[in-house]
Structure formats: structure tokens, C-alpha cells
Write a structure and sequence with these properties.
This protein is 64% helix and 0% strand. Helix 3 (26-33) crosses helix 4 (41-54) and helix 5 packs across helix 10. It has helices at residues 3-8, 11-18, 26-33, 41-54, 57-65, 73-77, 82-90, 98-115, 128-138, 143-165. By secondary structure, the protein is mainly α.
């Protein structure tokens, strides 16, 4: 879909289509809809990023808590969102060896105990080896550093999901 079609979407259709650009946070899409018209895909992405950036720290943690554990219970049960399932499978998290799965589960547990939100990384930009390495390394971060790092990962995920939904086009003339 091109940006002119995005701008023409009803509120309901916009939220329906863009409601999982930020994992399980359709309220963000609802807020971004009110900023139409967008001149480009980049402007749409900026609107999502600015909304997230403007949230208080508790709101940012709320966004992070909406993310599933990587290679966790939701993947095993088949209850991930379609986007998360594709992203985790693309990184090889649906095919971990037993030792990798145990390591991932232990690190996810330690991470959540330390930060009170799940580990977030843009799986599409990583593979299972790098994800395990990053998870181990990022467990050592200070909470404020890790929250900021995780929000940047959310924005990477958002960027790629928006690219999947909207054609790259010339700016729309308003």
C-alpha cells in the first residue's frame, strides 16, 4: 500500500493494519492515526518513534512488557503474533538445539528478574547465536541503559514492520 492509501484509511482500518507495528500496542497506532496525513513512509515511522519517545519511562517499560520471551512459552504454544512468529523463526529461534534452548530459557529468566521486562532485540537483524550473545551481555547493563537500548530495538522492529506494510514512495503532495 502506498502512503496516500495509508492516509485514506479509516481509524478502524488503520489500527487494524498498524496495531502490531509496536508489539501488542494498538493504542500507539490509534494515537499515530491522528497525525495524518503523512508525506512519506519516513514521516509515518517518525510519528511512531516520536510517540514512543514522548512516553514516560513507565510507559516505555509497558511497551517492553508486551513483547514475548524469545524462544519462550508463546513460541512453543503457537500463541505469538504472526509478526513475532515470522521474526523469531527467521532468526532460527524455532529450531534451537536442546542446550541452546536451555541457555535461552535461563538467560531470559535472569534478564526478566533483573529488569522486570522481557529481553527485546530485533530478531530480523540477528541470528540465534548473536541473540544469545546479546542476551548474555545485556544482562549486565544498568536498568536505565537497558531500557533505552530495548526501546531502540523496538524502533528497529517498528521500522521493518512498517516497511513490510507500506511501499517506499515519493513524498505525498499535501
Amino acid at each position: 500500500m502506498d502512503i496516500s492509501k495509508v492516509n485514506a484509511l479509516s481509524y478502524e482500518d488503520f489500527v487494524d493494519i498498524f496495531g502490531n507495528v509496536v508489539e501488542k500496542c494498538p493504542i500507539i497506532a490509534a494515537a499515530v492515526w491522528s497525525r495524518r496525513p503523512f508525506v512519506s513512509l519516513s514521516a509515518l515511522e517518525t510519528a511512531f518513534s516520536e510517540f514512543v519517545d514522548a512516553l514516560p519511562e513507565s510507559g516505555k517499560e509497558g511497551i517492553l512488557r508486551c513483547h514475548p520471551d524469545l524462544a519462550g512459552r508463546d513460541l512453543q504454544r503457537g500463541t505469538l503474533t504472526r509478526e513475532s512468529l515470522e521474526e523469531q523463526a527467521g532468526a532460527g529461534l524455532d529450531a534451537l538445539e536442546s542446550a541452546e534452548a536451555s541457555c535461552m530459557a535461563q538467560l531470559n529468566k535472569e534478564y526478566k528478574e533483573r529488569f522486570r521486562f522481557p529481553f527485546v532485540i530485533c530478531a530480523r537483524m540477528n541470528d540465534k547465536t548473536n541473540i544469545l550473545r546479546q542476551l548474555s551481555e545485556r544482562c549486565q547493563n544498568e536498568c536505565t541503559v537497558e531500557r533505552a537500548h530495548s526501546i531502540e530495538e523496538v524502533k528497529k522492529i517498528c521500522h521493518l514492520r512498517l516497511q513490510d506494510l507500506v511501499c517506499h514512495d515519493a513524498p505525498n503532495k499535501l
